[in-house]
Amino acid sequence: MTMASNAGQAGDLLLSVEDVDVGYGHVGVLEGVTLSVRRGSIAALVGRNGAGKSTLLRAISGLLTPSRGQIVFNGRAISRDKPHAIVGAGLLHVAEGRRLFRSQSVDDNLELGVYGLKMDAAGYQRRLARVFELFPVLEEKRRLPAGALSGGQQQMLAIGQAMMREPVLLMLDEPSLGLSPLLVDQVFAAIMALQQAGTTILLVEQLVERALEIASEAWVLQNGRMIASGPAAQIAASEELRAAYMAAH
Amino acid sequence: MDIDILARGLVAGSLYALVAVSFNILYRPTNVFNFAQGELVMLGAMVFASLATVLGWPWYAALIVTLLGVGLLTLLIDVVAVAPVLARSQHGTGWVITTLAASLIIANGVNRIWGPDPIVVRPPAPLTTDTFSLAGMTVSAYQIFLVLLTVILVLAIEQVYRTRQGKAVLAVAEDREAALLRGVNPLRLSRWSFFLGGAFAGLTGVLAAPVLYASTGLGPALLLKGFAAAAVGSIGNNRGALIAGYLIGVTEALGAALLSPGYQEAVVFLLVLCVLLVWPHGLFGRPFARTV
């Protein structure tokens, strides 16, 4: 087990995925995948549909268990931990498709964001205020069931729900999917605001160029293997890599 | 026609509603029907009857021991017969057999210990089963108490789902994986739900004992009609279960009075069949439908 002695310092490795194999049953999806995210940064994970991006996020958050390799978060091996323990360590995953509790109200969804945390009412209200500051529309609709919100509002609620826990690392899977350009701008602005407030972000995004604009580092996944990594600007400039991550549409 | 039918129907219906609610408590976080639920109600009645009537314990002490005992046994059913099956496959159906096995083991065990003779249980004072006339119906104070308490219990259980833990149970019911990603540990919630659902079944047995007598034969009938009430009222919907319980209880009493007691079960299940043919998800919609 790797123990980071300087855990907490900006710029050190907050998350490292080391030579990991992941599959569903006997079907291998990821082979020998390595990835790391520096504390305080935005990292982009890019690749075509089916490259294994969501599978990698699912392995990091404990929904899938790697058959080989290890995942270290904040100085602690988490590859064998259960999802709720990984959430407890401060690693939050906003899954693709706005997975909310649609029959419950916006307020209830945000409350579930702090499930299992002990805090006083003032602390809770402070976190709620931060979410409403970033996404004012949620405050207007707080009594409505989450299922009654528009797609963009649901995405904001999904991010807000994760924010309630004040995560150390936030993994966002396709946050712009299905949103209008105006809403995409809002979501990207929110991601940058979160990073400036100290949250580390791992972003999977189909709008690759926009993701590479706000990311400092990027990782390129192709057919279950990590084929390149480096400063986001370099990845964005490489014609060769463009073919690997641009969807054919 | 005798208006007493309504009173008999409501009393029986209350018990079916309580069994249905105990099904729902376990179903919400697990999507599992515990087919031992009927025998747990019977066990609750037998344990309470033995402590209160045979050993002469005060009713509240007998009640607490019964609820804890049946609750813990149901927790054991989860640990031994349900959780291991779900750990292998979340959408597997092995629990149908394992919970039926638990049901048979409890039924056999109880038969061995208590034998077939019913035990008379008196309600705690000042309640009695002495009948009097109310608006043309022959009723007892205990029957009125039972019907009212059922409504209160159903509303109280609904309040449990307004707490943070309760909301987490609803979250697991709606999208288990999304709940996992928000830090919910479904196993822990399942255990609590099994304990609570078991204690609720035990309580149902305690409440049933003064009107039905405590006997080892209680289980199967309560299991079937309680399950029918849960299905007609829409699985997972406790208010639906309450109304469906009354509907089934009154239909059963009508069937017995108008045709013959021999037909009462047939009439009940004919009603259930008709309702489910027209509304496959029960009368009260599908509030816990999964979205994919």
TrEMBL record, chain A:
Pfam families: ABC_tran
Domain ABC transporter: 15-248
Recorded GO MF terms: ATP binding; ATP hydrolysis activity; branched-chain amino acid transmembrane transporter activity
PROSITE patterns, per the entry: ABC_TRANSPORTER_1, ABC_TRANSPORTER_2
Domain of life: Bacteria
InterPro entries listed in its UniProt record: AAA+_ATPase, ABC_transporter-like_ATP-bd, ABC_transporter-like_CS, BCAA_Transport_ATP-bd_LivF, P-loop_NTPase
Keyword line: Amino-acid transport, ATP-binding, Nucleotide-binding, Transport
One GO-annotated biological process of the protein: L-amino acid transport
Keyword Zinc-finger recorded: no
Family per record: Belongs to the ABC transporter superfamily.
Protein name, as recorded: Branched-chain amino acid transport system ATP-binding protein
From TrEMBL, chain B:
Keyword line: Amino-acid transport, Cell membrane, Membrane, Transmembrane, Transmembrane helix, Transport
Spans traversing the lipid bilayer: 6-27, 39-57, 63-87, 94-114, 134-157, 192-212, 243-260, 266-284
GO cellular component terms given for this protein: plasma membrane
InterPro entries membership: ABC_transp_permease, BCAA_transport_permease
GO MF term set: transmembrane transporter activity
PANTHER family assigned: ABC TRANSPORTER PERMEASE PROTEIN, BRANCHED-CHAIN AMINO ACID TRANSPORT SYSTEM PERMEASE PROTEIN LIVH
Name of this protein: Branched-chain amino acid transport system permease protein
Organism: Camelimonas lactis
One Pfam family per UniProt: BPD_transp_2
GO BP terms, alphabetized: amino acid transport
